[in-house]
Design brief:
Elements: E1 12-18, E2 27-33, H1 51-64, E3 67-73, H2 75-81, H3 83-96, E4 104-108, E5 120-123, H4 131-154, H5 160-163, H6 169-178, H7 194-197
Parallel strand pairs: 1-4, 4-5
Antiparallel strand pairs: 1-2, 2-3
Helix pairs in contact: 1-4, 2-3
Organism: Imperialibacter roseus
EC number: 3.1.26.4
Keywords: Cytoplasm, Endonuclease, Hydrolase, Manganese, Metal-binding, Nuclease
Length: about 200
């Protein structure tokens, strides 16, 4: 059973991201404020759930949340500021869009760049400990997956509908055979012989 809040009586937004380890596509973050009495029998870290479960939970989270929002950081931005900073930017953009202003942020992971003057706590594996972070992980993952599926229609050889931009063997083989797209992160090690690729 996950915990409904970190600080009782405080408006908390849970934040998480998806896509940090990908070779292509944006990094996507979500911020979610849930009611303090929220409970759910299935909701947990998105990585522990099937795609079908995540899609069902996406609708449960959106309907139950006091506020929710999704923020993005493009491949170009990732290449410019690095993936860690891009993850923070995506989280900040998600919090920016919340229709209710939070008083505290719960961040999945061990690092975060402070958002305005809001206090925050970084919680390692927070998506398996707190409902709000788990809810954010569901939204970030499902929104990013759907986006990668749409991009995959434009560039089917990379099989993004299946691998979502992660460094699978099929994805790397397609890069080797066809080069890269505007959606690839050029600052990432796309292939072991990456420097040869860009000559």
């Amino acid at each position: 059973m996950l915990l409904p809040f970190f600080n009782k009586g405080v408006i908390e937004a849970g934040c998480d991201e998806a896509g940090r380890g990908c070779l292509a596509g944006p990094v996507v973050a979500a911020a979610v404020i849930l009611p303090p009495d929220f409970h759910h029998k299935v909701l947990t870290d998105s990585k522990q759930l099937s795609e079908k479960q995540r899609m069902a939970l996406k609708e449960d989270v959106k309907s139950a949340a006091i506020a929710w929002a999704v923020g993005w950081c493009s491949p170009e931005e990732i290449d410019k500021i690095n993936i860690l900073n891009a993850s923070f930017v995506a989280m900040h953009r998600a919090v920016d869009q919340l229709k209710k202003v939070p008083e505290h942020l719960l961040i999945d992971g061990n690092r975060f760049k402070k958002y305005k003057e809001l206090p925050h706590n970084c919680i390692v594996k927070g998506d398996s400990l707190y409902y709000s972070i788990a809810a954010a992980s569901i939204l970030a993952k499902t929104y990013r997956d759907e986006w990668m599926e749409r991009l995959g229609e434009e560039f089917p050889v990379y099989q993004w509908a299946k691998n979502k931009g992660y460094p699978t063997m099929d994805h790397r083989d397609a890069i080797r055979a066809h080069g890269i797209t505007p959606y690839h992160r050029k600052s990432f090690r796309l292939l072991p012989e990456q420097m040869e690729l860009f000559k």
